[in-house]
User: What shape does this take?
Amino acid sequence: MIRLNKYLADCGVASRRECDRLIVDGAVKINGKVAVLGATVKEGDHVLVNDKRVGDKQKDCYILLHKPKGYVTTVKDDLGRKTVMDLVHVNVRVYPVGRLDYDTEGLLILTNDGELANRLTHPRNEVNKTYIARISGSLAESERLALERGVVIDGVKTAPARVKILQRDVHHTRCEVTIHEGRNRQVKKMFEAVGKEVEFLKRVAIGDLRLGGLKRGDYRFLTENEVEYLKNL
Ligand code: URA
Assistant: This one.
């Protein structure tokens, strides 16, 4: 017997938490009956998600994509915009881990491994994410320190971050920003909190896993060592 949300995540439907949402929304049926949160599945059960059969566990697949701007980080977009799924052509049903904004580019992992997706996005695990941000205007040292110590966004102070200035002139500042929270539009909101606008944002690393020289829109499969590394983060 296995919990339904784990079964669905293992089958590559979505992360465990997103599967819980599907269950709450009544999108999941076990043997013809709408499933409830906390339900379990046993061998031979007939599981449907949005009336489509969910099969046995597929082979685990781990992809590192260089997301370009102009793509949404979802499997499907209600507004008909291009999604990151348009860039990845594999036979396995993978989905993006976490989110990058429509106009943000950079490192995005896609997988069908619900356990790993959960691990990488769970706030408790404090996985470092590193971004290159170009900001309008010159970032003062007092503002850089404020960002590192934490600023209030959406009523809650951000956790300590690392902000390194790479280049600065009167018009722009290029910084490397490392955060471990994954709040909505966090980097942009942090700079907004010190009165600065982010003009360009790119994620270059998750932990020690780096985007490297991968071109925009290209992807590669993670190596076994990289997968092991992420599982142990
Ligand atoms: N922070 C943001 O503001 N946007 C992203 O896409 C990622 C982090």
Q: What stands out?
A: The CA atoms of residues 96 and 110 lie 4 Å apart. Residues 16-24 form the longest helix (9 residues).
